[in-house]
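Study this pair:
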Amino acid sequence: MILGNNSIPIFDRSRKRRIRFFSNNIFSQYKRMRIY
């Protein structure tokens, strides 16, 4: 479910910020639950 920046299409800039923020939030939660 975690998507890297490479997975995000380059032509989709409008969603890039939203998806990036959303992915970063999920990654942060996953990292906390997984490691910490």
User: Anything to note?
Assistant: The CA atoms of residues 12 and 26 lie 20 Å apart. Residues 13-34 form the longest helix (22 residues). The two ends are 19 Å apart (CA to CA).
